[in-house]
Inverse folding.
């Protein structure tokens, strides 16, 4: 088997990784919708999906089935090829960007072939991410135009103009990080943030030498929220203003594709934010001396979650809940036990902290949506060009000066 | 048939097909989409030769900015389909065969002239080398192009502004 | 059996080549021929199309063909100046596209048509 693996690396190494990542990503997308509805609902003092399965956990499944069975209409006079191309383009570009993201430091081996915890490890990974983001404008622009409807056209044009404008700030705000790390390679950017100053403060780019990239992070996140057309920059898909913006005339599955593309971009941006500014898969605790017990934090977290689920589940309202929730809790407890086996905590550290940070950013995304009011379009464009872009350029200038200063 | 030649043939076929499609399509938006395909294929070819930064810049600038501008203008001006034109008989029976003959002859002479240019095995050119060259030896043209872009922005703004009669 | 480096450790294009295979790569003439074909197709589009935006796009196609030739020569001679020039060509093409499209917008507004055959008042 090992010789077969050595001769067919793409089949044995790359393909399983792609399949696993795709599977996890699509499931995460589905449950991201559930998460968002629950969090926004609780912010608005209501329950959110509660009936479809225990705690509404089967709601994404119900939504998916609804999308599949809805009638698929095509507006009269629509440019058929472009109408079909636009959601496909949006979704495929959004999902492709996960390919360059590293999830952990350690290589693991499949049948003797050692491979890193990422689908690819490109030297220009960050540039490729920006290239994919800049191509994402087409999905929106073509969707708006090909629907042959005035709401769609205005929504599409506005949305693409917004995306193109905030793309500039997005790329400029990252230049500080690139200068500090000296590479476009995402794994190297994370590795440049290793180490702890004064023994316990992690040297992440947010708070690291020579110039803490706080301004860069704020600019990056704001521009990313605008780039993914999320609240408070979601004027173009607001029901109150534009009926639906560029996806007004899209039914069932094509609309679901736009939906999935948006959430997928959210996940990609969260991954990027953690890698660039928050140390990616690095643990916030030092790894030496008395701090080694922090290696068992994943196990402890899973154990607590599992036990809480079991205790809550056995007293749940419906029969289904009383079965499903404790089973989920048992699975989590099983994973917690697995994480205490020798050799496993080392391996699980990286992905655990990475996923925790991503979850934090996704929560911030949903929090912003539930809390802030929408920008008006002209104020949105003014903000992007007259406030964010000059600040991004200022960030680049100050970071370069700081680097030159400290290198003397 | 090494993997590199196979990849080259696939990308070249895509590029040529896209370019032919630019000519054959009647609606300008379809021509624009075909041109985007050509540009992405060319970016792949740059990657194949090890010019990774240029490949990324090609997608970001050409594919993500210039062609977006084209698509915007096509949408704004509401450009419609062209009428079908038929090639004249001269073009069809003399022009196309002559074109093919010329192509074959060009292929022969190009192959002969460049046979001595042995290609080294492609290593990726790091961005660091490229930027060292750009910011040390060619810093003056670099600053000039930034000036040029400023002029272009001003020109586009002034030209496309609607003349409001007060 | 030559040792292949697998996609998982790809740090760039080098991973795609057979290590130590003696330089079996794509010959320069292939790239130059492709560049010539694309340039020719650009010229054909320039001559035969009637929509002014499509004509403008054919100019971009010609510029891309030239870029490909530059990168191929840069690789053949081992110098990076070719890629620097490609960088400048891309930037200048962007500036030119912006101004050119602004001019097209003005023409379309004044003449009401995007057909070059009809913008011929200087002829008569």
């Amino acid at each position: 088997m090992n010789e077969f693996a050595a001769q067919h690396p793409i089949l044995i190494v790359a393909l399983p990784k792609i399949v696993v990542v795709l599977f996890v990503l699509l499931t995460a997308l589905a449950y991201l919708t559930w998460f968002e509805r629950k969090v926004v609902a609780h912010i608005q003092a209501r329950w959110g999906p509660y009936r479809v399965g225990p705690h509404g956990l089967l709601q994404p499944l119900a939504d998916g089935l609804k999308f599949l069975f809805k009638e698929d209409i095509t507006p009269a006079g629509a440019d058929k090829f472009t109408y079909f191309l636009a959601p496909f383009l949006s979704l495929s570009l959004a999902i492709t960007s996960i390919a360059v993201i590293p999830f952990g430091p350690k290589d693991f081996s499949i049948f003797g072939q050692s491979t890193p915890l990422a689908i690819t490890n490109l030297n220009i990974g960050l540039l490729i991410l920006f290239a994919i983001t800049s191509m994402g404008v087409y999905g929106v622009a073509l969707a708006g135009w090909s629907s042959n409807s005035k709401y769609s056209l205005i929504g599409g044009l506005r949305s693409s103009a917004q995306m193109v404008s905030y793309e500039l700030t997005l790329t400029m705000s990252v230049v500080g990080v690139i200068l500090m790390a000296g590479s476009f390679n995402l794994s190297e950017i994370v590795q440049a943030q290793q180490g702890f100053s004064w023994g316990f403060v992690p040297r992440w780019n947010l708070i690291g030498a020579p110039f803490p990239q706080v301004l860069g992070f704020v600019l990056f996140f704001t521009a990313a929220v605008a780039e993914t057309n999320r609240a408070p920059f979601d004027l173009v898909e607001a029901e109150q203003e534009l009926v639906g913006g560029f996806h007004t005339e899209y039914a069932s599955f094509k609309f679901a594709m736009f939906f999935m593309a948006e959430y997928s971009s959210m996940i990609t941006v969260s991954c990027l934010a953690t890698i660039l500014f928050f140390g990616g898969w690095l643990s916030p605790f030092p790894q030496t001396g008395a701090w080694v017990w922090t290696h068992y934090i994943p196990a402890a977290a899973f154990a607590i979650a599992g036990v809480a689920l079991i205790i809550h589940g056995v007293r749940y309202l419906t029969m289904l809940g009383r079965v499903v929730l404790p089973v989920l809790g048992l699975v989590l407890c099983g994973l917690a036990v697995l994480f205490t086996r020798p050799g496993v905590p080392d391996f699980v550290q990286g992905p655990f902290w990475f996923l925790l940070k991503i979850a934090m950013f996704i929560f911030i995304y949903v929090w912003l949506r539930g809390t802030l009011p929408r920008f008006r379009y002209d104020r949105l464009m003014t903000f992007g060009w007259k406030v964010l872009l000059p600040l991004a350029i200022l960030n680049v200038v100050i970071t370069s000066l700081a680097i030159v200063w400290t290198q003397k | 048939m090494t993997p590199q030649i196979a990849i080259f043939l696939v990308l070249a076929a895509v590029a040529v097909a896209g370019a032919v499609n630019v000519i054959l399509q009647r609606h300008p938006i379809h021509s624009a989409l075909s041109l985007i395909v050509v540009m992405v294929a060319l970016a792949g070819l740059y990657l194949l030769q090890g010019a990774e930064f240029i490949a990324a810049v090609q997608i970001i600038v050409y594919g993500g900015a210039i062609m977006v501008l084209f698509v915007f203008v096509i949408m704004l001006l509401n450009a419609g389909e062209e009428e079908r034109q038929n090639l004249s008989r001269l073009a069809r029976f003399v022009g196309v065969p002559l074109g093919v003959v010329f192509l074959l002859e060009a292929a022969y002479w190009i192959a002969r002239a460049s046979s001595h240019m042995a290609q080294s095995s492609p290593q990726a050119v790091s961005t660091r080398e490229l930027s060292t060259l750009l910011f040390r030896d060619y810093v003056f043209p670099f600053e000039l192009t930034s000036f040029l872009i400023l002029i272009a922005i001003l020109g586009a703004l002034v030209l496309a502004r609607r003349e409001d009669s007060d | 059996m030559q040792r292949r480096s697998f996609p998982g450790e790809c740090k760039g294009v080098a991973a795609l080549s057979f290590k130590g295979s003696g330089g079996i790569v794509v010959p320069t003439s292939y790239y130059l021929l492709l560049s010539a074909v694309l340039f020719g197709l650009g010229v054909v589009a320039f001559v035969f199309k009637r929509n002014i935006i499509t004509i403008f796009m054919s100019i971009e196609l010609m510029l891309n063909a030239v870029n490909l030739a530059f990168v191929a020569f840069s690789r053949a001679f081992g110098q990076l100046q070719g890629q620097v020039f490609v960088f400048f060509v891309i930037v200048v093409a962007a500036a030119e596209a912006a101004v050119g499209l602004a001019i097209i917008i003005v023409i379309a507004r004044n003449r009401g048509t995007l057909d070059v055959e009809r913008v011929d008042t200087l002829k008569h």
About this structure: Chain A touches chain C at residues 7, 9-10, 13-14, 17, 113, 115-116, 119-124, 185 (CB under 8 Å).
